[in-house]
Amino acid sequence: MRLRNVKGAKEKIEGDDYTIKLPNEKKGIWKDVFGNDNPIHIEIGMGKGKFIMELAKKNPNINYIGIEKYSSVLVRALEKRPELEQDNLYFIRMDAEDLNEVFEEEEVARIYLNFSDPWPKERHAKRRLTSVQFLERYNKCLDQDGLIIFKTDNRELFDFSLEQVELAGWNLENVTYDLHHSEYAEGNVMTEYEEKFSKEGKPINRMVIRRKR
Ligand code: SAM
Prior knowledge:
This is tRNA (guanine-N(7)-)-methyltransferase. This protein is an alpha/beta fold.
C-alpha cells in the first residue's frame, strides 16, 4: 500500500482518547480498559477502520481493538471514530510482530485479517500475516475457542495461507474462493479494499481458521 505522510498524524494520535498509547501496560488487563468481561476481537492491519467500525456498531456486546502499523493510516480511522457513539472500540498503533507483548495468553477471542499485505518476495514470507510465524503469535493470545477470519483478493497469498494453516496444525473451516457468491455472503461486512476489488470484478477469498487445542 502506498503511503502518503499525513501532517500532524502523530500529534492527533497522541491526543486521542480511543488510541491506547502504551498497549504493553494493558497486557492481561484489557477487560479493565473496556470496563466489562465481553469477548475481545481484534483486526490486524485495519487500514482506515471502516470494517471494524461497522462491526463495533452492530455488536455492542463485543469489544473491538483495531491495530494499524502506520500513523498516517490510523489517523483516518480516528477521524471517523466519533460517528460511533459507543465505547467498545479502541485502536493501537503498532506492528503486529509485537502482539505477544500486548496480549496475554487467551486474552483474545477472534482475529480478523483483511486484505493483508502480500509480501510477494519469498525472502519476506515470514512477514505475511498468515505465516506460521504469525500463527504461532496468534496461538499464544487466542482463547481455546479462538479463531481467525481471513479475507483477501490475492489468490497466491490465499494458497500460501492454506499451506501455512496445515503446517501449523490449525483447522480450516468455511473456505471459499468467491465469498460474495457463496453461502457465507449473508452478513458479510465489506472493508475498504474489499469494496474496491469487488467493484473491479475480483473474487474475494475467505477462510476461517480455528486455533489448535
Ligand atoms: N484491512 C484494510 C482493508 O481491507 O481495507 C486495509 C488493507 S491494507 C492492504 C493493509 C493494512 O495493514 C495497511 O494499512 C498496513 O499499514 C497494515 N499492516 C501491514 N502490516 C502490518 C503489521 N505487521 N502490523 C500492523 N498493521 C499492518
